[in-house]
């Protein structure tokens, strides 16, 4: 998740932007006209756009590269696609920012967008002429800073409840929809060799990412971590460990580790994302299903965090900005969003394209359902989110290991987040 590691790859997903904060850059350098153009002579050829992202793994690298190539051709420019490993991307972006050499198109993990936008280095997309109609409001929020949209995601992702169909069927259990059902079902599905439920509760970004659906769906507020709704959500999660329905080791498990436990039959249900589909589909004899994450009470809306990346247009020159905006707009057509969704398990940002994907790919339908009520991690707290996420993860670790009660852990977290 982004935060999170590379969603769509074996590495971590959602928190990419959290750990990077300002990292996650994609540099689609809508290259300069030519050296001759810079001195006033006639241009030697079409603009060359250099695209830099952190999609070093498949299928995202090829999927994005194919779309960039197609969009470049349709808009009369050229593209050189460069993928930089996530840990190295942030230093590169910061260096380019300080030297005023940012690329013409820049990809950012959505929690990182505000960090770059606040420097004035990005062009508002409406000013650039990018059509934002038909996009989920939650996704526009994730790409916004101070009321202006600076980044648009061709697709997003989040997390949902995965369950072993054979195990639940044998126990006569349907996928739980409420916290009470989750607690009861997890206990019933737990055996000496298998836990009923698993999730990541690590302190490397994915713990907060996986906890937020419980936190937010119960009315939790990132500005008041120690409020009653927040405490109740941590009581739920820590209670699953205390009852033996979830392993104490979740405090060290990344999402990939949780997925391994699920595939090995050591967890009947888990929280995870669509980037795990390739690995799950390759597991022999595994029959799994996907459902929305359980909510506090029947009928309540599940509120998951939005993961994924936004593409931006850095401030360069008028010609480059116009060219970059055309490529960005092309990347976000319904056809290209559907292609990316099917290749990499993303949910299209356009509501019409998302509806098509939900119909064509049933496993993605729960994720599509969740997007309409999903929340941006930075919408309310802005650039303070990384510190808040760290405080939440510390609280989780304390409560799940029994070092502190949920109330005490979150009181400490609120103090730490305020100082941060």
TrEMBL record:
It holds the Pfam family SBP_bac_8. InterPro entries: SBP (IPR006059). Gene3D superfamilies: Periplasmic binding protein-like II. Residues 1-32 form the signal peptide. Keywords: Signal, Transport. Belongs to the bacterial solute-binding protein 1 family. This is ABC transporter substrate-binding protein. It comes from Streptacidiphilus jeojiensis. The lineage of its organism: Bacteria, Bacillati, Actinomycetota, Actinomycetes, Kitasatosporales.
């Amino acid at each position: 998740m982004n935060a999170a590691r590379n969603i769509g790859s074996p590495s971590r997903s959602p928190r990419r932007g959290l750990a990077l904060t300002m990292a996650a850059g994609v540099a689609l350098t809508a290259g300069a006209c030519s050296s001759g153009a810079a001195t006033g002579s006639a241009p030697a050829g079409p603009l060359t756009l250099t695209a830099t992202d952190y999609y070093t793994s498949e299928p995202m690298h090829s999927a994005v590269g194919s779309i960039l190539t197609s969009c470049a051709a349709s808009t009369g420019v050229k593209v050189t696609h460069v993928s930089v490993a996530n840990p190295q991307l942030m230093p590169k972006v910061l260096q380019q920012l300080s030297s005023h050499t940012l690329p013409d198109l820049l990809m950012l993990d959505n929690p990182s967008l505000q960090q770059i936008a606040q420097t004035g280095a990005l062009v508002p997309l409406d000013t650039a002429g990018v059509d934002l109609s038909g996009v989920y409001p939650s996704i526009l929020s994730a790409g916004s800073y101070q009321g202006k949209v600076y980044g648009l995601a061709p697709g997003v992702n989040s997390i949902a409840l995965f369950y072993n169909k054979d195990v639940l069927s044998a126990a006569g259990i349907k996928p739980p929809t409420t916290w009470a059902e989750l607690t009861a079902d997890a206990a019933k599905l737990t055996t000496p060799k298998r836990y009923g439920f698993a999730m990541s509760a690590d302190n490397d970004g994915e713990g907060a990412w996986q906890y937020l659906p419980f936190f937010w769906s119960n009315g939790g507020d990132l500005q008041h971590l120690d409020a009653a709704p927040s405490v109740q959500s941590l009581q739920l999660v820590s209670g699953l460990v205390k009852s033996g329905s979830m392993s104490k080791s979740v405090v060290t498990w990344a999402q990939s580790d949780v997925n391994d436990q699920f595939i090995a039959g050591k967890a009947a249900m888990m929280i995870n994302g669509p980037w795990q589909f390739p690995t799950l589909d390759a597991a022999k004899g595994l029959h799994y299903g996907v459902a929305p994450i359980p909510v506090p009470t029947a009928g309540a809306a599940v509120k998951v965090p939005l993961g994924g990346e936004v593409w931006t247009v850095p401030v360069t020159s008028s010609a480059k900005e116009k060219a970059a905006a055309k490529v960005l707009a092309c990347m976000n057509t319904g056809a290209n969003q559907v292609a990316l969704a099917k290749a990499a398990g993303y949910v299209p940002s356009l509501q019409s394209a998302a509806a098509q994907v939900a119909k064509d790919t049933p496993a993605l339908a729960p994720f599509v359902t969740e997007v309409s009520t999903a929340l941006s991690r930075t919408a309310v707290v802005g650039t303070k989110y990384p510190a808040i996420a760290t405080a939440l993860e510390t609280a989780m670790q304390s409560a799940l290991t029994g070092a502190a009660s949920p109330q005490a852990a979150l009181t400490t977290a609120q103090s730490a987040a305020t100082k941060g």
